[in-house]
What we know:
The chain is of the alpha/beta class. The chain is built from 16 helices and 14 strands. It has helices spanning 18-24, 61-64, 80-96, 100-115, 121-124, 150-158, 185-189, 196-205, 225-233, 264-274, 283-293, 304-315, 347-362, 373-383, 389-395, 403-406, and strands spanning 2-5, 8-11, 51-54, 57-60, 74-76, 132-134, 138-140, 165-168, 172-175, 219-221, 240-243, 278-281, 298-302, 325-329. The strands form 5 sheets. A 5-stranded mixed beta sheet has the order 2-1-5-3-4. Strands 6-7-10 form a 3-stranded antiparallel beta sheet. A two-stranded antiparallel sheet has the order 8-9. A hairpin with a 3-residue loop joins strand 6 (132-134) and strand 7 (138-140).
Amino acid sequence: MNIQLNGQPTTLDGPAQLLSVLHQQHLSLHHPKGFEELAWINNPRCPLVHLVEVDDQVVPLAVWANRPISEGMKIATTSSQLDTVLRQRLTQLGERQQCQFIAQIQEFAAAEAESSGMVDLEKRAQWDFQPRGSSPSVFHDPNACVRCKACVDTCNDMQGGVGALSFDEEQGVLFDDAKCTRCGQCILSCPIGFRKLPDFVSKMMGCAPCPFSRPLGAMRQVDDTRKVWHALKDLEKYVVVQFAPAVRATLGEEFGIEPGSLVTRRLYAALRRLGCRQVWDTNFSADLTIMEEGNVKVAVAHGLGNARKVCESVRSGGEFAGYHFIEFMACEGGCIGGGGQIIPTNMMTRKARTQGVNFDDRAHAIRKSHQTPEVEQIYQDFLQKPLGHLSHELLHTSYIDRSQQAKSPAAVAK
């Protein structure tokens, strides 16, 4: 059988498949230099960058690997066309930080929105709005939005009428930064960021380990991953990391582990292997919080709808007016339901995560903050006593009245 390999006539002994021919001929795939994203793609079957040219058509090797070779077939692992396509894809990957194939799969949600009368996809393809959001944590891509208003409803209904998000028929979702608390619940409600279908395809194509395989919602958290990578590679920087207690019972979901599974030791090990010089656990800070609050009458509210009720009670001299400390957690269920948590975050995942955190607590020999040796030491050697002058200066915070800002005119597009 006669074929062409990278422009050279080649004769095969008999029937063969594409991948076996490449192996027999010791041919490797072409990848242009100067794109750091290539180092992060941990998938030999990646349909985005592992490409070949067959009869002048650029195709994913994973799709064509087992196809039989035919007489006269032209196969190339390097060509000007391959180089151009790869550079275009890698440039887009660097700018958007998401695989274009995953983005295309997300468009099923857009098609559903169109069938429900929410958006016209032809008009949507022509949108050219500037990004919006609430610095430093919430990012909105209005050009990816499907105008379902789920984020607006979450902000104004589930979160008790925060009013940071509104909807304009022409411009879509608008932000009032003065009212936004950066709780991120709007992120969890965006259907473009839902993972069921993209995760199914990722598993089928072996994309799960790739950081670019996660779907990006039209409403999403600000991604500082690249900043972290650059810091880790900078030998002049001493990189430390601190994570919230809830993460130990949630992060595993990102890697296919059941919700609520504890990954504490794996998390420590992974952060060390990444190059973090110190790994700090916010459990210690939580113990200090309990020490500062534990001598007085304390209340806790989670979800901004409940926070509003508690504030109104205090203002009117009601049930909560007599409390010395009131802790507000902006998210339903607390940190296990935070806007930066793994999607989906719903009633079932919140319950499983809560059970995981509680199990972790029960498994410890020391379960009371005032009995923790490190806490005892910091008060003995430095802070002196709970609610003392020094602890008040270092551990307590203050709040800024933004009510006048919040009374400003309705949000405008940024």
